[in-house]
């Protein structure tokens, strides 16, 4: 019987993902490395690398770990309600971990957990409600891009800092050249970090896509 490795027992995929997310949340994207992970887990650099091979593999572990937290919507839930539940849950997860968004960039999110918890049930519900598969995918894609873009737009964990950075940039503008941005800063800034901007836009997309049968 092969001997179990104590280091591999400590460096499970779940432990690696959770630790990587803590590093990203506490120290930012620049601090994440196999060596930093190994130090926190109390294992060797090589042990971490055995688990995830490279940075892309590590990021995939992180996204799968988060996708496992997405809700399983009960069968029979109204289509619009189910759609809003799924995408608002994804939005909240992404907003909580901005460092992961920075590192993933445009990489596709196609892990099994995400497909099983979000993509497949969302598409299946849409088809069952009367959409064609192509219509279901188009509606899903619009809501997914809205969610991803809204979460990545600013670091929502530090809204005050985001607003102050934008305020300083707008204050430097020539009001004659930028009459709306320069002349209405107090009205423009709150929307940058207002979660209701996302929720309202998502509901508009849901209403526009809602199949007649639903």
Automatic annotation (TrEMBL):
UniProtKB keywords: Transcription, Transcription regulation
A Pfam family per the record: TetR_C_1
Gene3D superfamilies: Homeodomain-like (1.10.10.60), Tetracycline Repressor, domain 2 (1.10.357.10)
Domain annotation Tetracycline repressor TetR C-terminal: ranges: 76-185
InterPro entries per the UniProt record, alphabetical: Homeodomain-like_sf (IPR009057), Repressor_TetR_C (IPR004111), Tet_transcr_reg_TetR-rel_C_sf (IPR036271)
Protein name, as recorded: TetR family transcriptional regulator
């Amino acid at each position: 019987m092969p001997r179990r490795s104590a280091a591999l027992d400590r460096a499970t995929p779940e432990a690696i993902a959770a630790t990587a997310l803590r590093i990203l949340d506490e120290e930012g994207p620049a601090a994440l490395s196999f060596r930093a992970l190994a130090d926190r887990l109390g294992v060797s650099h090589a042990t971490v690398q055995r688990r995830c091979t490279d940075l892309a593999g590590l990021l995939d572990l992180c996204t799968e770990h988060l996708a496992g937290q997405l809700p399983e919507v009960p069968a029979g839930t109204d289509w619009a309600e189910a759609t809003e539940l799924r995408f608002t849950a994804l939005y909240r997860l992404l907003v909580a971990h901005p460092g992961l968004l920075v590192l993933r960039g445009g990489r596709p999110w196609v892990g099994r957990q995400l497909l099983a918890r979000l993509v497949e049930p969302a598409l299946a519900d849409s088809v069952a409600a009367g959409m064609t598969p192509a219509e279901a995918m188009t509606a899903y894609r619009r809501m997914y891009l809205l969610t991803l873009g809204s979460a990545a737009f600013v670091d929502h964990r530090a809204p005050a800092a985001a607003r102050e950075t934008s305020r300083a940039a707008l204050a430097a503008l020539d009001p004659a050249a930028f009459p709306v941005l320069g002349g209405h800063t107090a009205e423009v800034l709150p929307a940058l970090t207002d979660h209701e901007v996302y929720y309202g836009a998502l509901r508009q997309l849901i209403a526009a896509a809602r199949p007649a049968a639903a």
